[in-house]
Design goal:
Elements (H helix, E strand, L loop, with lengths): L1 H6 L4 E14 L3 E15 L6 E15 L19 E3 L6 H12 L33 H13 L2
Parallel strand pairs: 3-4
Antiparallel strand pairs: 1-2, 2-3
Amino acid sequence: MKDLATYLGLAGLRKLRFQGTLTPIGKRDWALQGQLGATVVQPCVLTLDPVTTRIETPVERRYLADLPQEEAGPEIEMSEDDSIEPLQSQIDLGVVMAESLALHIPLYPRADGAKMEQNQFTEPGKDAMTDADSRPFAGLNALRDKLGKDGE
């Protein structure tokens, strides 16, 4: 578990549980119905304090020997059904567990009460850039203001 936590960039991983049933579909395909449970510890994106999150999620996969063929063309579209996987010679449930866990870990964990403060950094004697300055049409406003002063 420690290797998995390190691989996923977690500060800690506890109570990892993956249960499921792998059943045949027809003669060549398989279906996996499972449940993933884990407690992950990550650093808060703002304070670096530890944030503990409980993950409980169903896991479903269908392993098909022959994937449905899409229309041939210059572009390949991804299937909307993300539970379909190509059937390999082995189904590695450890990989399925790790992938499912990675997909459900919070991207930006925040500690309770953590707030992002607004800091402004600039050279002495200059005005700091604000959020309004970074908007797409901020340059047009500055141009309008300049043209208005020149026209007076």
